[in-house]
Amino acid sequence: MSGQEYRCVDAARGGLMFMRPVPGVGLGERVRIRDDQGRERTGQVIRSAEDVILVQVFEGTDHLNPEQTWVRFLNEPFTVPLSREVLGRVFNGTGEPRDERPPLLSRLRRNVNGAPVNPAARAYPREFIETGMSAIDGLNSLVRGQKLPIFSGSGLPHNQLAAQIVRQARLPGEESDFAIVFAAMGMSYNEARFFQEDFEASGVLGNVAMFINLADDPAIERLILPRTALTAAEYLAYDLDLHVLVVITDMTQYASALREVATAKGDVPSRKGYPGYLYSDLAEIYERAGRIKARHGSITMVPVVSMPSDDITHPIPDLTGYITEGQIVLSRELNSQGIYPPIYIPPSLSRLMKDGIGKDFTREDHPRVASQIYASYARALEVRNLASIIGAEELSGSDREYLRFADAFEQQFVGQAADEGRSIGQTLDLCWQLLSLLPQQELTRVSEADLAAHYQAEAAGEAPVSA
Amino acid sequence: MPGKVLTLNGPIVNAELPGIATGEQVLIGELEVVGEVIARQQDQAIIQAYESTESLCPGDPVTSLGHPLSVELGPGLLGQIFDGIQRPLQALFSSHGDTLPRGVRLDALERERSWCFTPDPGLKSGDTIRPGMILGTVPETETIEHRVLVPPNIHGELMELAPAGDYCLKGVIAHVRGSGGRVHELRLFHRWPVRTPRPYERRDHAVAPLLTGQRILDTFFPLLKGGKGAVPGPFGAGKTMVQQQIARWADADIVIYVGCGERGNELVDILESFPKLTDPHSGRSLMERTLLVANTSNMPVVAREASIYVGVTLAEYYRDQGYDVVMVADSTSRWAEALREVGGRLGEMPVEEGYPAYLASRLAAFYERAGRIETQGGRRGSVTLIGAVSPPGGDFSEPVTSHTKDIVETFWALSKPLADARHYPAVDWIDSFSGYAATAARWWEKEVDPEWADHRARALALLSQADELTRIVNLVGPEALSPAQRWALEGADLIKQGVLQQSALDPVDSYCPPAKQVALLRAMLQFYDDGGELLDLGVPVQELLRLPLLAQARRLKNLPAEGDADPIADFIEQLATETGALRMEYAQHEEKPA
Ligand SMILES: Nc1ncnc2c1ncn2[C@@H]1O[C@H](COP(=O)(O)OP(=O)(O)OP(=O)(O)O)[C@@H](O)[C@H]1O
Ligand SMILES: [Mg+2]
Asked: What pTM was computed for the model?
């Protein structure tokens, strides 16, 4: 049957083709489409019924004339070829090369949808990754196999941050590098070039597999791109034993494409027009990160999610936060003060930090220091708020110390240069230097032993050294 | 005669399958994907598939299994992890590797495993057999004696009961002649359909608190054994941590943890850590009393809907053996979304935010399966249900949260501002409530502290006074407060940091026994009262706020009580000494003429 072409399209719109039924067509089947210009497109069956077959077309349905469209059902699920050669290459969302080199030749092909990992097969992620960024390593530590998104907004430096993580991420005391899978959806040409040049400059390009869909490429292709990229990542991690760092940007573009198709299909919308199954759909992507028992490789995922109108309760960051293992939240306010990376600490979180830090991983005092910094900074922000109402001169003595702490913390701890990598030891020492700006009395989340070992009594009351 | 597939729409399959009953299970296609008939329209059956329908085609065969979704109930459940339709995930991992295969059916309970059965010595041939009677026992784990029950629908006369010995799971241990002479063969296990609550004799009042070792829960918003509670909160606020802490430390006999549409790693966390943790009540490994049901967010959405019922049926089964069972479900919102997804694909009319009209009644029916009861066999047992709720955008007015709030008696509202400040557990003392406080008070006052209710009320009053004062400060600045008000702020902060905040990660404080809960609260209130007295004597509030004892009070919870050491008693003593000294000093001032 796979040889036969049908001309049975009734309508084509919104990335979907509505076709008269053809017997024996399975759900999820891959199709090849030839238009009146003889150009080929690829699609996938998303509904199969006695009266209609629905196909989503990854190249979009623009200029498809139903009368002049021929469809071939390939009688196989949507698969992509895999080999070590994916590293160093650039592909589109369906896995076709976009670097003017020949297609990957491999007999090994896998279904891009993957299959859900058996929870009993997973191993709990606990190896601390040093990114060299204090706000991450010290307060929101990333571990191998974690999914930790960056929540950002338009104009904020999420690309720089993602690139810096790619450049600097390493396991303390280990040589082995990460293989990188880079998945970009709806990205501008300039942004894509930024990443390409950054990878090139840091000499990792040969270790990167790129899957790119630019802003002017078909939106429907974004639905399959992360799946294709993750299929490659799983191959690298679990067949080739590599530790893989997957950067996916921008999941908001993915979700928009999903909404577009859902609307065209007539699915019942839930919040803001996104379909009710957005949560499950996103989870199918994010849950592909992790570690598996008795496999050496791992998949660590850093998706970028832009928050429409900087709203963290918007369905896409919201549902992402419900699925991922924490989030790094960027702030427009810090950014406008020139602080890079503008990571806003209170809403940021790493859920897997608790098992990846402390005595056997980073330093014994790490969990308590991090908790103390969070508490002190929360208090400092309250004081700053109060100062804006009643004036800083009305503040009590210890409140003024909190104000100084907040400023120093943002400038010296959160802020660092785009090429600066700090060791975890340096980051924790910096924590203590800043905490020492506050009266010892106030530091009740650390132990008395911690204070005796690390609190710098002479620093209290002194002006902080400017960065 | 097999039917055939007509339409495939995600997990919803329409099939031509005349005569099949709603609720029956079916196998679809060559792959034998499992599904359940959820509705009928003329000759068409509407099926929800528990597994992915990828690659199925119209025309594929559909066959009936002849029974509704049921679970296997017998020894060997504890320590296991099952999927949403009770497939054993460890066994699937051994047989099929890292990912979940489709169309594979494995027995939930290992058939060949043998168990050491001891018959009930009081039973003999000729005795009348009624549902819920105990035929004998099997040591399921070191801590849990599994009581082999007569299934709920079996009546008759005992013909023969097996003697003590080793029997494999499928071995017959009793023959019972039912009415009409039919002979039932009873085994170590039986089946029960998950959507039918297991019968019991009568409902009973819940009387004892479920002790979780978490101060904000036990002391401020208690739950009872047999009660129903919910933990709503935005992402990252700590719902899973609260439920995991309950699974770890609650004084229940059996814990059933249902991961419903949440993260795989959270289940692995339990699987890896529980075997190494000791149950503070039995002194044995926690895994011996724990059972997991897992349908993670990336697993098929329809089985997510089933997982909740599978979990609660397992809970009822241990309840019927006379145990106190706690089931935590993380998250009931994902279960509700599964309902919504199926409803949407069936073209049902959505009422609020896409949810079907029966959302509220389904939720209520689920929570109704909680309760303390007298079993058919005359024992007492309970099922306590605790559901996490994940409101979109953290908005508690959305349908799942608001319906749940109307149903449950204990509501632990988690707050984002508290979580952002790393005040854990982030249970908000204003928005949370417990309808069980009066009943819990009777227990606490009898068993631990006669002034429990009074202290609880004082602490809550101090907290809400402080919230009010903070609002004033934020309007006009701290200068507007009197010394007593300034001290009230400090007192409330002592309660927050010294009592309410409790890190699940602190080796000492993760579990707080009842006596320590009471002692800590007393210590903070004592400090506040003493300070109030000193203010009356003319001690400046600034001087009180400088007391190093304040920092010590906040760290008190983390100090281990090893051997004879009692850090809280030592603290109270030191407090008495230091406030005594200040009192002396200022009392002398007062005597001097102005
Ligand atoms: N009692 C606690 N002690 C220490 N840390 C806590 C506590 N409660 C929560 N946390 C911290 O908060 C993080 C998030 O908690 P948790 O995973 O329970 O959130 P959640 O409400 O279940 O979120 P989601 O809805 O996304 O699943 C934890 O990883 C932990 O770091
Ligand atoms: Mg959770």
From this structure: 0.95
Q: List, for residues B345-394, the tens digit of each pLDDT value.
A: 888 888 888 899 999 999 999 999 999 999 999 999 999 999 999 999 99
H or E element, residue A17? strand A16-19
From CA B3, how far away is CA A314, in angstroms rounded? 44
CB within 8 Å: B272 and A77: no
**Please, are residues B69 and B193 in contact by the beta-carbon 8 Å criterion?**
yes
| Chain B neighbors of A444, CB-CB under 8 A | 497, 551, 554-555
B262 Cα: distance to centroid of ligand 2 (angstroms): 7
The mean pLDDT of B4-13, rounded to a whole number, is 91
Nearest to A248 by CA among A237, A232, A262: A232
Q: Decide if A15 contacts A56 (C-beta within 8 A).
A: yes
Q: How confident is the model at residue B427 (pLDDT cuts 50, 70, 90)?
A: very high
ipTM: 0.94
| Region B452-458 average pLDDT | 97
Q: Is residue A115 part of a domain?
A: yes
| Nearest protein CA to atom 28 of ligand 1, as residue | A351
Cα–Cα distances in angstroms (integers) from residue A184 to residues A158, A210, A285, B253, in the given order: 13, 8, 14, 50
Q: Which of B557, B535, B553, B554 is nearest to B544 (CA)?
A: B535
Cβ within 8 Å, pair B477-A386: yes
Contacts of B298 in chain A (CB under 8 A): 116-117, 280, 283-284, 287-288
Q: Residue B593 has which token pair?
A: 């003429």
Residue A401 has, within 13 A of its CA and on its CB side, a CA count of 17
Whole-number Å distance, alpha carbon A7 to ligand 1 midpoint, is: 55
The CATH number for A183's domain is: 3.40.50.12240
Using CA atoms, how far residue A240 sits from A83, A84, A118, A296, B265, in Å, is 9, 8, 20, 9, 23
Partner B contacted by A367 (CB < 8 A): yes
CB pairs under 8 A between A and B: 211
Contact B321, B140 (CB under 8 A): no
Q: Count CA atoms closer than 13 A to B550's CA, side-chain side.
A: 22
Q: Work out the angle at residue B582's Cα, subtended by the Cα atoms of residues B577 and B588, and round it to the nearest 5 degrees.
A: 125
Count of C-beta atoms within a 10 Å radius of residue B333? 26
Using CB atoms, which residue from B8, B296, B340 is nearest to A27? Answer: B8
**Residue B55: closest CA among A254, A196, A377, A48:** A48
Residue B406's Cα: distance from chain center in Å? 18
B448/B517 Cα distance (integer angstroms): 10
Cis ω for the linkage preceding A83 (within 30 of 0) = no
Cα atoms in the 13 Å half-sphere on the side-chain side of B355: 20
* Whether the Cβ atoms of residue A273 and residue A258 lie closer than 8 Å to each other: no
What is the bridge-based pairing of β-strands B433-434 and B410-411?
antiparallel
Give the rounded distance of the alpha carbon of A355 from its chain centre.
21
Q: What residues of chain A lie within 8 A of the CB of B7, using their CB?
A: 47-50
Q: What are phi and psi of B185, to 5 degrees?
A: -100, 115
Residue A379 and residue A334 share a domain: no
Interface test with B, best of A1, A19, A48, A118 (most B CBs within 10 A): A118
Amino acid at B427: V
What domains, with CATH codes, occur in chain B? 3-69 (2.40.30.20), 111-188 (2.40.50.100), 202-435 (3.40.50.300), 452-591 (1.10.1140.10)
Q: Which residues of chain A have pLDDT under 50?
A: 1, 461-467
**Residue A27 lies in domain:** 5-76
Q: Which helix (H) or strand (E) holds B146?
A: strand B145-149
In chain B, DSSP finds a helix count (H) and a strand count (E) of 16, 28
Token pair in block for residue B371: 């309760």
| Pick from A296-305, B15-24, B207-216: least confident | B15-24
